[in-house]
TrEMBL record:
It comes from Geodia barretti. One of its GO terms (molecular function) is monoatomic ion channel activity. This is Inositol 1,4,5-trisphosphate receptor type 1. The chain crosses the membrane at residues 33-52, 64-86, 92-111, 162-189, 210-232, 311-335. Its main location: membrane. It is a multi-pass membrane protein. Residues 490-507 have a biased composition (Polar residues). GO terms for biological process: calcium ion transport. It is found in: Membrane. The lineage of its organism: Eukaryota, Metazoa, Porifera, Demospongiae, Heteroscleromorpha. Residues 170-341 form the Ion transport domain. Residues 490-513 are annotated as: Disordered. Pfam families: Ion_trans (PF00520).
Length: 513
């Protein structure tokens, strides 16, 4: 069956809703096949838990009355009719119908036939899921590769596919070998929910630190075992209930006539047994090793030694090593994983996955953040474009398509063709705002220039007035000087002439003797 599935997968081509509608529908409902596989695994394990072994469970099913059977038929029919009207709770009602159908099949067909039918449906559903997963991963889109390369990529080339092939093998072994193998399918719940994956990661992420701390705890237990073996081996007395083989059969055990006998056995006769007892009883006990050892009397010579032994074991091994170090590392790692998950969800909620712009950038804008991530930078539009590029012949590429194809085919893919921290709506608004800001700046500069011109004009007029005033003062002073000179000249002409060598004029210098 697995070989037939591989042959079908390898012969499949690229899924197209027009060329291959059946394959397209199978790939489109991949999550539905995954949910059906999980619910079938839960139903099968529920039947095993209730009715195994099936020969005894059949007697219980046969004892169901006719009224109960008719009531189940009525409830089943009512749920089937409600599927036509309860569109809001369609999935929940569908799950309820499936459960009632299984119960109805158990009553009508029996447990073993119902179990076989469910096992067969689980195998077939898992094959369909693997086929849809291969188609959704796009492994078969490149038909130029060899069949061996495709076989390797489908079987062991992908970790997720490898996990589901192992899941399918468990379904086959549980269907054909033994029913208990179906119990391992329940671990699929870890792969379905992120919270449970974080629980596993809280241990595996700091596994080295946890292992080193556990080794330190083992060393301390070994030292405490040596100390207990040397000083008080007689305190390691454990009550035991010996197995009476005569009162136990392959099906049940009956209490002996004299009751269960309790024997006190020394569990520290050898150092190895002392280590096993300290490890098994001391770590599991809430108060440490003192909860399982003999209670000493206060007058015993080693009473205080025993007191320090019990108290130090409780404080160091139980409190510090196990509760604070090991459990503390696990709890802190789980808290960090939860905070990281919340941070990622907050980032995806308030940040555009394509351009990286935050929600705050779109406040008081014409385009809201929701419209931006839905229309401008839709994640699905980019995904469809990448799938379109991968499925299109390279000879038919346009210029931009060739550029994007070269980018996404590199290892790792180059994302330079993504619009980082920009988008058309904000760029348009920013351009308009920039133009308005430039006009405002020009207007402000013009106003400033007018103010400067006015100031210079006022200063120039003031300077011109000063110059005119200065010229008037100079002219006035020149006129006064000329008048003085004219008055002086008239005065000299009106006075009599003096003797030679003398002069009354103040402007004539005296000649020295």
């Amino acid at each position: 069956m697995m070989v037939l599935t591989l042959a079908i997968i390898l012969s499949a081509d690229v899924v197209s809703p027009t060329e291959q509608p059946i394959a397209f529908d199978i790939a489109h409902h991949m999550r539905t096949w995954s949910s059906i596989a999980f619910y079938l695994a839960m139903s099968i394990n529920f039947l095993v838990a209730l009715f195994y072994p099936f020969d005894k469970g059949s007697d219980y099913v046969a004892s169901i009355s006719l009224k109960t059977s008719l009531l189940l038929w009525l409830v089943f029919g009512a749920c089937c009719m409600s599927l036509l009207y309860l569109r809001t709770y369609f999935k929940q009602v569908l799950v309820l119908v499936g459960i009632l159908a299984i119960v109805r099949a158990v009553i009508t067909l029996g447990i073993q036939p119902t179990f076989s039918v469910l096992g067969f449906l689980q195998v077939m559903n898992k094959l369909v899921f693997i086929f849809s997963l291969v188609l959704n991963k796009g492994i078969l889109h490149n038909r130029k590769t060899s069949q061996f390369s495709l076989f390797y990529r489908v079987v062991v080339g992908d970790n997720e596919l490898l996990y589901h092939w192992f899941y399918l093998s468990l379904c086959l072994f549980g269907w054909m070998v033994h029913e208990f193998l179906y119990s391992f399918l329940l671990f699929d719940i870890v792969a379905r929910y992120d919270t449970l994956r974080n629980v596993i990661k809280s241990v595996t992420r700091n596994l080295k630190s946890i292992l080193l701390t556990a080794i330190l705890a083992l060393i301390l237990i070994f030292l405490y075992s040596i100390f207990g073996y040397i000083f008080f081996p007689g305190d390691f007395l454990m009550p035991t209930h010996p197995n009476d083989l005569q009162s136990c059969t392959s099906e049940s055990c009956t209490e002996p006539d004299n009751g269960w006998e309790v024997h006190m056995e020394s569990s520290c006769s050898t150092l190895f047994m002392c280590i096993i007892t300290t490890l098994k009883e001391g770590v599991r006990a809430g108060g440490g090793i003192s909860d399982v050892l003999r209670k000493p009397h206060s007058q015993e010579p080693l009473f205080f030694v025993r007191f320090l032994y019990d108290l130090s074991f409780f404080l160091i091994v139980i409190i510090i090593i196990i509760q604070n170090l090991i459990f503390g590392v696990i709890i802190d790692t789980f808290a960090d994983l939860r905070a990281e998950k919340n941070r990622k969800e907050e980032m995806l909620k308030n940040t555009c996955f394509i351009c990286g712009l935050e929600r705050v950038k779109f406040e008081n804008k014409e385009v809201t953040f929701e419209e931006h991530i839905k229309h401008e930078h839709s994640l699905w539009h980019y995904l469809f474009f990448i799938v379109y590029i991968k499925t299109k012949e390279s000879t038919e590429f346009t210029g931009p398509e060739s550029y994007v194809s070269d980018m996404i085919n590199t290892s790792p893919p180059d994302l330079e063709w993504f619009p980082r921290l920009r988008c058309m709506s904000l760029n348009t608004e920013e351009a308009e705002n920039t133009e308005q800001n430039e006009m405002k700046e020009l207007r402000d500069q013009l106003n400033d220039t007018n103010q400067v011109v006015k100031q210079l004009s006022s200063q120039l007029s003031e300077l011109r007035d000063r110059m005119m005033e200065h010229r008037k003062n100079q002219q006035r002073s020149y006129v006064q000087r000329i008048q003085q000179l004219g008055n002086l000249h008239n005065r000299t002409q009106s006075t009599p002439q003096t003797a030679p060598g003398t002069s009354n004029s103040p402007f004539v210098a005296q000649r020295p003797e």
